[in-house]
């Protein structure tokens, strides 16, 4: 019996799937490592995907 698969997750239109970015603050610590902060996409909250649209019966695509 074939298995039914759900719809593929939709890529976030605001970040195109690149949901997080590491941004350097310009400084270095005593070991020489850069100070970084992480910024997440405000639309998808760092997941890179959005919720799929609900499937309405009888609707034409």
Structure description:
It is a single chain. With 61 residues, the chain is an all-beta fold. Helix content is 0%, strand content 33%. The strands form two sheets. A two-stranded antiparallel ribbon has the order 1-4. Strands 2-3 form a two-stranded antiparallel sheet. A hairpin with a 5-residue loop joins strand 2 and strand 3.
Summarize the entry for a quick read.
The chain has strands at 10-11, 20-28, 34-40, 49-50. The protein has 61 residues and is mostly beta strands.
- Major sheet characteristics: 2 strands, antiparallel
Distance between the termini: 27 Å
Compute the number of strand runs.
Answer: 4
Shape annotation: elongated
Question: Which residues sit in consecutive blocks of at least 5 with pLDDT less than 50?
Answer: none
Quote the average pLDDT. Answer: 82
Order of helices and strands: EEEE
Radius of gyration: 19 Å
> Oligomer, anyone?
single chain
Beta-strand content estimate: 25-35%
Q: Structural class, please? A: mainly beta
Number of helices: 0
Query: In percent, how helical is the residue content?
Result: under 10%
Order of strands across the biggest sheet?
1-4
